[in-house]
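Demo today. Your pick:
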Amino acid sequence: MLKGFRDFLMRGNVLDLAVAVVVGTAFTAIVTAFTENIINPLIAAIGADQDVEGLGILLRSGAPATFVDIGAVITAVINFVIIAAVVYFVLIVPFTAAKKRLIREQHAEEEAGVTDIELLTEIRDLLAAQRNAQPPATS
């Protein structure tokens, strides 16, 4: 069981996954900073109440804990859309295109090359011809 775990760790997939997590975390920090410092102020400017920070509804006057922050939800949605778009266009689209190209190349090689059955048939025919051409062995 430990040998299987070690083999799993030694494969490149774990390293690729670790790099993806680190890059994803860094990118999330960039998008979060963008939405908090650019998008949030724009959304907060839409709010009509100057005493309340952001776009939302104050359920009970004088109790800031009862503030329903709609702006934060909008910001989270924008954050998600930005990250999903980058993941799709930077990772998924190129990977899918490369995969299709690889599959096309493999099919082209298979169609152009000789199949195993054809090679075995040719070997059989050559051996049969060689056997018929040799004089019978004398003792």
About this structure: The domain at 2-95 is CATH 1.10.1200.120 (Non-ribosomal Peptide Synthetase Peptidyl Carrier Protein; Chain A). The chain has four helices and two strands.
